[in-house]
Design goal:
Shape: globular
Oligomer: single chain
CATH superfamily: MetI-like
Number of strands: 0
CATH topology: MetI-like fold
Strand content: under 5%
Low-confidence stretches: none
Helix content: over 70%
Largest sheet: none
Number of helices: 12
Distance between the termini: 45 Å
Structural class: mainly alpha
Number of domains: 1
CATH class: Mainly Alpha
CATH architecture: Orthogonal Bundle
Order of helices and strands: HHHHHHHHHHHH
């Protein structure tokens, strides 16, 4: 039995190792083929540093702004049964399965300056085409399912008796949400927000349709590659990967420490 188990484990280890190699090899190749001189030169490129800052701020903005609506929706979906619930689930998950360039076209048709919504927004001085606001809505559109599903699963995992006990003791439904449901679901919600932020930060297809300029880093990598080739785009890709990884790890460490303190 142990002999069979060992062979079985080794087979799985080989299969998993091939997958890990598939993920790691391109990243290692990118590191090895990028010279230090080109990295330093790229770091002094104002367009590159501005695009990285724009990418981080718009991804964070999309996460924070749209979480105000998606978290309450996740709570409703976790606590209520109603006709059409599965349809809403499907609509929320739709951006995951459709091509993101198609998502960009769909957003452009709704938020362009010629559309009803776009013209109404322009009346208040807000434009979505070729602006940071357009980048935010494109990032949010493709990344909302990550936060929604994580928040819904967290709310569903809460022992409903705790919420009922709070309301039996005189708490309103709003007080129960903020004092019981939200604190108990915070780990999953924050993990979902991190995933939404990371997904938005890496978005290309939807953003390039609605806001080619100002350039976020994924668009700039493509632009430099199309215009000047691999040598010009490789250092930007490497720097962005390192910064994205550092930001992701930092957020994880901060949230883990806050959970440990509480």
């Amino acid at each position: 039995m142990n002999h069979r188990l060992n062979r079985f484990s080794i087979l799985f280890m080989l299969a998993g190792g091939l997958v890990l190699l598939f993920v790691i090899a391109p990243l290692v190749g990118l590191f090895l083929q990028t010279s230090g001189v080109s990295i330093v030169k790229t770091l002094h490129d104002h367009e590159v540093t501005h695009s990285i800052l724009l990418t981080l701020t718009t991804a964070m903005g999309a996460t924070l702004i749209f979480s105000l609506g998606i978290i309450p929706l996740a709570w409703l979906m976790a606590h209520h049964q109603f006709r059409g619930k599965r349809i809403i689930h499907g609509l929320i998950d739709l951006p995951v399965v459709i091509p993101h360039t198609a998502a960009g076209i769909a957003l452009l048709s709704v938020f362009s300056d010629q559309s009803l919504l776009g013209s109404g927004a322009s009346f208040f001085g807000l434009s979505f085409v070729g602006t940071s606001a357009g980048i935010v809505i494109a990032m949010a559109f493709v990344s909302l399912p990550f936060l929604f599903n994580a928040a819904r699963d967290s709310f569903e995992s809460i022992d409903k008796r705790l919420e009922h006990a709070a309301m039996n003791l005189g708490a309103s439904q709003m007080q129960t949400f903020f004092r019981v449901s939200l604190p108990l679901a915070k780990n999953g919600i924050i993990s979902g927000m991190i995933m939404m932020f990371a997904r938005g930060m890496s978005e290309f297809g939807a953003v390039v349709i609605i806001a080619y300029y100002p350039m976020i880093t994924p668009v700039m990598i493509f632009d430099r590659f199309a215009s000047f080739g691999l040598e010009a785009s490789r250092p930007i890709a490497l720097i962005f990967i390192v910064i994205a990884l550092a930001v992701f790890v930092l957020i994880r460490l901060i949230t883990r420490k806050s959970f440990a303190v509480r």
